[in-house]
Amino acid sequence: MCLFIEGASTGIDPHSLHEQLAGMIKPYYIPVGKEEAFFTAAYKQQLSVLLKGPTGVGKSRFVEHMAQQLGRPLITVACHEDLTAADLVGRYILKGNETVWQDGPLTQAVKQGAICYLDEVVEARSDTVVVLHPLTDHRRELNIERLGECLKAPPEFMVVLSYNPGYQTLLKDLKASTRQRMVAMDFDFPPAQVEKRILEEIYDIGPELTDKLVRLAAVMRRLDAPGLSEVASTRALVATGKLVREGMSPRDAGVAAMASALSDDPEVIQGLTGLIEEYLGD
Amino acid sequence: MIEPSDSPASSEAPNWRQLFTLREDSVEPSSLSGLAFLASGIAGRQLRIYLLAPAQPSYTDGQTIFLNPELSTTQRTAVAAAHAALIDAGSLDSQCIRAISLRPAVAARFFSMELPRAVRGCESLLPQALVTNLPLPENICGSVEESLARAKDHRHKVKPTESWLGVLRPRRMLRGAGPGSANAVAGKLDSFRINQLEEHDEDEDLDTSSAKVMKLFSSPLASANWLTDMLQQILGMGRGGAGEEENDGSGGAHGGGSAHQASGENLEITDSSLQMNTMDERLPLLPQQTDWKYPEWHAGKGRYLPDWVNVNEIEAPAEPDQRLEPCDVSMHTLAQQLFKVGVEFENHRRQPTGDDIDVDALVEHLVDRATGHTHEENIYCNSQRTRRDLSAAMLVDISRSTGDRLADGKTIFGQQVHAARLISRALSYFGDRVAVYAFHSWGRGITRLLRIKGFDEAEGALIDGRFTGLQPSGLTRLGAAIRHASFRLQQEKYHTHRLLMVFTDGFAYDDEYEGRHAEADVAKALSEARERGVACVCISIGSEQRDDNLERTFGTSTYLHCQKVRDLPARLQRLINTALRVTEKTR
């Protein structure tokens, strides 16, 4: 399991750590619509939020941004198909001659009143996601069967789920009972103007290259090539820009970040390379 | 369609795509694939780029953009982008095109009106340099309708486009969008007729009739071949075509030369006591009892036709000295994908990590440690998806049409058989129960399933020999084949997941079995199978386009079309898991 717990694993009180961090690292985020107001409203009303959208459009970045805005610690769990309920809630482990209970990320989040962010939640087994149910309705409590305990969540605690609906429809889907506990926000690639600002203001990529990249991305996102399940995300554009800043030619950087990275099919790569050359070639 | 072994001439017979390519005097160089991606991105749908013969103006038929080869690289990009923009802007929708198809002058004016509008509409998508360098006439128009009205009104002045930007060829456009893939045979026949009928109109359109006439004289052979091939293809596809009898003997014991007579009522075969509805309770079959009768769904009457189709299962003859047609994928690549298919959770004890503590292991561990031994702390229980739980049957279409040559000289038949061979080997390797059947039919009298590998047979040289002994012949009565394979799968009680994989080229076609009737029957056979817990997927390899009928009957998520076997592994896992999941839900 890949687990990022800000502050929690270091033994420092996450609240104070968070306050220290708040002044130093600010996750840049440029709002596209009313998403900030929406998220704040859900937080105040103790509702759980479901973020939907393709990979690399800024879902995780948005959650980081909002956690910072609301002044709450953020606990992120990257979900995968072997994630069990014990991985979220906690388990007994052996320490020396005795067994000790170790809290899982969800239990920690409840105890700290943190925002618990389950990234790519459809990847998790459906029986795992069910532990969220009592936490995300009026009860707002976490049952820990192995301890025989029931934790009451503080008002600051919030559950945020994200997934990419384009990936899979039938094979992996959220249970209807999980869905109806959520309020959902749809994310899509930012409009060209916002994407330009992201590249120019945050990542300091020149306006000329930015313009080319944004046009290229617009065309790539309309492509319906077989063997190409993902398209050039904002993240891929940023990666291209960063490589160019290190002295790579725009064409090579584009191929590395947006052609080879997206597909293994030689024909698709060749086509994408040709397309990239039309926009970023000399 | 055409048998590869018919005659030396037909072994070089181009497939349909090549035929039309030849007609267009065009090629699709791989160096243009970037341009094809650009055009597809702008148009928002898949487009191809072909090069024309010299001196022909560029145009598009809505699916392919044909470029004049004399254009410079920048011009090519510009023309491809401009024509793709026209498609995106809806300028080439069939209504507009019909309105101008008989009036070349109006078409030219419409092109000059629409081009600037279309390019402006998708300006944000195009490379900046291209937008600034594209010489667009300053015809300002807000909508297609407005352009159309102005194009028709000859009093209105329209600035012409530069000639290298190409032309609009409404009739090609109508033809390109027309037949589609839904009914490929009919489509091809239609285009054939249109070609013949419209030749004059179009030549006048473009005022290049003399050039075309010259071309006909310069390559009389090519043109003659083209016609002969066309006729052969049509005849080969027909019911009981002329070539049918010559090759039948190779298939196996039954059928043979008289096969297509079986389509009538003169063949009522054996054992009428076997009824579909009592099938489930039947005792194990004796070896000689190899014929079954299955009903067929009649959509028009809304009921089954009882005991309608005779299904005959025989062991496939082995030809151990032959080799399979080569394909570009290894068993290992497929096995990597199939490893995660049809697996269920099982509890593993003595694991280094896990949800619960394994008490026995913990006690042992503590005792070991107390007595001074050191062991790893494998004291947890862990449930993992590792238990193989799959019975799979493969049904390979070996009807005559699968013998078609693909662009690279391989056959759909060969590729299908090879893919089935690899999948069968991979699944057997994991210990799954696998059966492989090939099927073809001659009317409702005989639908024959050749058993290449039964569930109880082990992999080995004998199975290899049966794979190589197959020959394409006959037609495709898919519904009956699915019912029988599904019946065989239902007899498998070992596993909870049961999977039926159908490999076919898309022509569900037999005597009195075509079109909507065939489609409805196949759909019915599939829903019967799914209700009984058999997950069904369909895989088409090699054909140019997805088959709309198959996609409709099998369902978008359980139909897979790939041009090469190479594309199969990446998509196989999701396909099968989806099918298994759907079936679970149905049950």
Number of domains of chain A: 2
Largest sheet: number of strands, sense, barrel closure of chain B: 8 strands, mixed
Nearest-angstrom radius of gyration of chain B? 29 Å
**How many DSSP H or I helices of chain B?**
21
Low-confidence parts of chain A, pLDDT < 50 over ≥5 residues?
A: 1-24
Terminus-to-terminus distance of chain A:
44 Å
What string, H for helix and E for strand, traces the elements of chain A in order? EHHEHEHEEHEHHEEEHEHHHHH
SSE class of chain B? alpha/beta
Largest interface, chains and sizes? A-B, 44 and 45 residues
What is the helical fraction of chain B, as a range of percent? 40-55%
Strand arrangement across the biggest beta sheet of chain A: 1-3-6-9-2-10
Average of pLDDT of chain B: 75
Strand order of the largest sheet of chain B: 4-5-11-10-9-12-13-14
Work out the helix count of chain A: 13
Poorly predicted residue ranges of chain B: 1-27, 178-289
Identify the CATH architecture of the largest domain in chain B. 3-Layer(aba) Sandwich
Structural class of chain A: alpha/beta
CATH T-level topology of the largest domain in chain A: Rossmann fold
